[in-house]
Specification:
alpha+beta; 6-stranded antiparallel beta sheet; 3 helices
């Protein structure tokens, strides 16, 4: 575990380092040692069906993955690789910013588990998931 608590500002710095995360327009809203809340500012490029205008499921899965990863990063001070992830879709995510709330389920020395819930601009659950992450110290 990290020697010092990771602040919201440090989490924002970590999440903004990656080009993919920048493209997803993430803003850290809250963060503590066990959970994070992030906003993904909606982009027109997320639309999969121009007739219905809903967000592609891969975008929702990525948001679940990143949020869960950064719940763990809040403890470790660094993001970690995903080993496995399961995502459930609850309803179509229409245009509008999305908010993800994630928490650590179990921290282990080698592998850890976190879960995330993604909500639309109206607060409706659109996706949720749970991932396993490789948390062994880097060599």
């Amino acid at each position: 575990m990290s020697e010092e608590a990771v602040t919201k500002e440090k989490l924002q710095e970590l999440i903004s380092r990656g080009p993919f995360n920048k493209w997803l327009n993430f803003t850290v809203l809250k963060g503590d040692q066990n959970s994070v809340e992030i906003k993904a500012a909606w982009r027109e490029e997320w639309v999969v069906s121009f007739e219905r205008r809903y967000t592609h499921g891969g975008i929702l899965a990525a948001i679940v993955d990143v949020a869960a990863d950064y719940a763990i990063a809040a403890q470790l001070g660094r993001p970690v690789p995903t080993i496995d992830i399961r995502v459930d879709y609850h309803k179509a995510a229409m245009p509008g910013d999305l908010t993800a709330k994630a928490r650590v389920v179990r921290m282990g020395s080698q592998y850890s588990t976190a879960e995330a819930y993604v909500y639309d601009k109206d607060g409706a659950l659109v996706a949720s998931g749970r991932g396993t992450y490789f948390t062994a110290p880097p060599k």
